[in-house]
Amino acid sequence: MESKQLSDILIKTLIDKKAKDVIKIFISEKTVIADYFVIADAPNPTLVKALAEYCEDEAEKNGVKALRKEGISEGRWAVVDFGGVILHIFNKESREFYRIERLWQDENNVESFTDEE
Q1: What is the pTM of this model?
Q2: Of 33, 36, 45, 112, which residue is the least packed, with the fewest Cβ within 10 Å?
Q3: How far is CA 115 from the centre of its chain?
């Protein structure tokens, strides 16, 4: 599966499951570690963990297995590496503290997605 297609599946899952401030950053021109970062936040540790698990399940349904996972059990910052896409799900405080978007984004490589409430 192509990275763009996987990133779209992850974004849809995040939005459907009530993640907040979902963005996708195209990073392949800046690094070799992945093509995209998908970043979102959740209001509590339980939802951080659940979102990571939902996304992993959806990826597996589409034939993609996680290569590495970190931080899911703590519920502050979950990182799931799918190869071409690296998923980051933060609690609000951790996202504001680390602000990894500012390290990778420029005016041309970010898409923002909002849930329709």
Answers
A1: 0.92
A2: 112
A3: 15
